[in-house]
Amino acid sequence: MTDKQPTTIGRCYGCGRTFAYDPATATMFAVDPETGFPPGMTALGSVREPSPEAVARAVEKPVCPTCVEQAKRFLEDADAPPPLKPWHRP
Ligand SMILES: [Zn+2]
Which of 25, 35, 49, 52 is the most buried (most CB within 10 A)? Predict the structure, then answer.
């Protein structure tokens, strides 16, 4: 019985660490090689409608589990409403 797992060695887009991943289950991140950012995202961090050219040339980069966790936490934080800080204490 051979239980061979399809494992690929790649470099994490987030931290640059080399790690083994399964292309079937790993989190992949589309990156426009011209900008180094996802299609539609500018170097300034703003997001706009990606051009068809940017989508066409985008390549999928693997992201390691550590960075996936960090990204999730970041998204959760960004989702939360900003805490209201009163200027004056009662
Ligand atoms: Zn990483």
Answer: 35
Q: What is the domain count for the chain?
A: 1
* Helix (H) or strand (E) segment spanning residue 53: helix 52-57
Question: Model-level pTM?
Answer: 0.64
Residue 65 lies in a domain: yes
The pLDDT of residue 79 is 65
Count Cβ neighbours within 10 Å for each residue of 20-38 and write b for 16 or more, e otherwise.
ebeeeebbebbbbeeeebb
pLDDT in tens, 23-60: 889 999 899 988 888 898 877 778 888 999 999 999 99
From the CA of 56, how far away is ligand 1's center (Å)? 24
Amino acid at 59: V
